[in-house]
Amino acid sequence: MKRMLKLLLTCLCLFSLAGQSIADTNADAKIFKHIKLLAQHGNAEGQRRLGEMYYSGRGVPQDYAEAAKWDRLAAQQGDAVGQGQLGYMYYSGRGVPQDYAEAVKWYRLAAQQGKAEAQWRLGYMYDFGQGVSQDYAEAMKWYRLAAQQGDAHGQGLLGYMYYFGRGVPQDYVLAYMWFNVSAVTDKDSAVGRDILSKQMTSGQIAEAQALSRQCMANHFKGCQ
């Protein structure tokens, strides 16, 4: 039994390395077969990977209900990525009835384990009062935690909070800083930054750019 699980874990590693580069459907089907065996033996990562394959239709016909089933099994074992994925399925109503309160529950569990995407998604729920009472301060808390990990979505959302003064005093300099940091990989933040720049003085822009450089140099830690 241990030998078989070791072989299956090796297969799981190969799946991780392959990513989305495998185009051969026969290869995908073989990977699916091995991942399913691993999942059926209770391995949380195998369960979560199986859920991902059902969700994307890779190696198997797309089936959101099966994806939710396997994500749930992984999530119940404490797999943070599985928790976040299950949260999104409840948020979007894919494979399960749409339920914002359940989405918040699973996002929170993943966020508390430090998953940046779950952190900004939980912040978004607080920002717009979905499944929880609207709370801008709580939204800021979770956006910031994601932003400090270098997550561009979390950084961009912080920018919007400073721009509109939601949960914090309105501050164009800090809004520009977070938009600018996020814009390295997020086009929407670049658009937000460029729109905001038209409402700022040259001195404010220079200050914001200096803060951006400092923030990135400190790996997003200690930024305002």
Short description:
Helix 9 runs antiparallel to helix 10 and helix 10 crosses helix 12. Residues 1-10 and 16-23 have low confidence and may be disordered.
Number of strands: 0
Q: Major sheet, described briefly?
A: none
Approximate strand percentage: under 5%
**CATH topology call of the domain at 1-113:** Serine Threonine Protein Phosphatase 5, Tetratricopeptide repeat
Q: Which structural class do you get from the secondary structure elements?
A: mainly alpha
The helix/strand series, from N terminus to C terminus, equals: HHHHHHHHHHHH
CATH class of the domain at 1-113: Mainly Alpha
Q: Residue ranges: pLDDT <50 for 5 or more in a row? A: 1-10, 16-23
How many DSSP helices?
Answer: 12
Under CATH, the homologous superfamily of the domain at 1-113 reads Tetratricopeptide repeat domain
Q: State the end-to-end CA separation.
A: 52 Å
Mean pLDDT: 91
Radius of gyration: 20 Å
CATH architecture of the domain at 1-113: Alpha Horseshoe
Q: Tell me the overall shape.
A: elongated
Overview of the structural elements:
The protein is mostly helical and 224 residues long. It has a domain at 1-113: Alpha Horseshoe (Serine Threonine Protein Phosphatase 5, Tetratricopeptide repeat), CATH 1.25.40. Helices cover 72% and strands 0% of the residues. It is built from 12 helices and no strands. It has helices at 2-18, 25-40, 44-56, 64-76, 80-92, 100-112, 116-128, 136-148, 152-164, 172-182, 187-197, 202-217. The radius of gyration is 20 Å and the shape is elongated. The model is unreliable at 1-10 and 16-23 (pLDDT under 50).
